[in-house]
Amino acid sequence: FTGKRALNGLKLAFGPELWWGANPALLAKYRRRVLGMDITGVFQNDVARQNSSASSSFAIPIPPTRAATLSVATTAGPLGIELGGIWAGNTKLGQVFQRLSGTAGSEKVLQDRIKNSDTFGAKAKLTFSAGRWNWYAQGAMMGLVTDAGPTATQTFTGWNLKDSGSGNQVNVLTGVTATFGSLQIAPNFLWQKPLVGPMPITAPPPGRPRNIIDDPFAVRYNRETVGAELLLSYDPTPATWMYQWDNDVREDARFAANVGVVFRHQPTTRDAAIGILADGRTTFPFPGAPPARDLWEVKSRIVTAPFRSLRMIANGYVGLGEPNGNDARLIRRMGGDLRLVSGPIKLMGAVKLNDWGPYDYHRDFNLTYPLQLMGDLSYVLGTPQWFDLPETRFGIRGTWRSLDRMSPRYCPGYKNDASGVQVCDPTAPGPDGREWEIRTYLMVGW
To answer: Which residues of 299-337 are buried (b: 16+ CB within 10 A; e: fewer)?
Structure first.
């Protein structure tokens, strides 16, 4: 519901699942401009717990919550000022959680409870724009249960290091962009630390890793991190901004590209993630999380239209990755995809080396494939858009994967289980396996 005239600035959203995995909820937003300031208030109230079965670990229904935020934004010449406050999680008041006390080797597990002070948080942000230079700095202090959710706000460019929006943390971010003609250089930095650290799997009894279902909060994306990022962008046509969500369709440069390097120093572990059993419905907390480690990744994107009738977009990445679950194996992965559009014909190809499979449970359980190849050829009925946008098309897709002992369904040999039944033994000696499929499809869009 969007208000007009006297109700201008009011928006309401309500329903049984406003986003994937959300509880039945009511959202209200009201924005007014007062004395040169934009004042915005948002209220969320979950009216019940989502009772549908979880089908993805990215959309696990969590206990109902209630939250309200108030923000004020204004400008003073080239300086932008934003201040915000949040009250959230009062439905968790009095809930018990564990915390560690003491130094390594002499730690004790203590019991604490959520208090009123744990339901408040605040954030401040400054921006400065002058000619080719843009700069921002922001900081936040969030109570233990003041989860605000991730932000989709883009500041100046397409940085990856952002405030996770999670509660239980204090963070500081700053970055600068310098533009020289068609080239932009943009370093970015992040420091964040939880107010109450994670419960490692090595905690003495009765300690255990927290999770978002059984505990009032958990240390996940708010894990202690010192991050640095450098993003280089070449975009000769800034009117079609390279980091706009629909840039695949709108970019009109003959050639535009970027490359970004991200490094994260993570000196502690995390709390436990939630996984889904093989039945696809039953959820469970993992017994722990990967250890403290540093991660890095390099990503690049190229958009080109060498001919009026041909459009090409390429994406590539290489870096270190860790699973969502408790497996300690660190993977060194790389891959990329190439997408071509010429009139009503679309062609896509992708390759992955030592990477997770396409589904979330592959990363949850750290299931990887040595090599994955995919090709897709389709024909569009109607006005061509871009991949993943609603349109009517039919096509054919082929997928090929090699398998090793880290892959699902790999079976180089058999062994007898405890009951004497023969089962696959992925640790048996043998060559890499392989699997492939060819599918045809008709996608109807309106």
So the answer is: bbbbbbbeeeeebbbbebbebebbbbbbbeeebebebbb
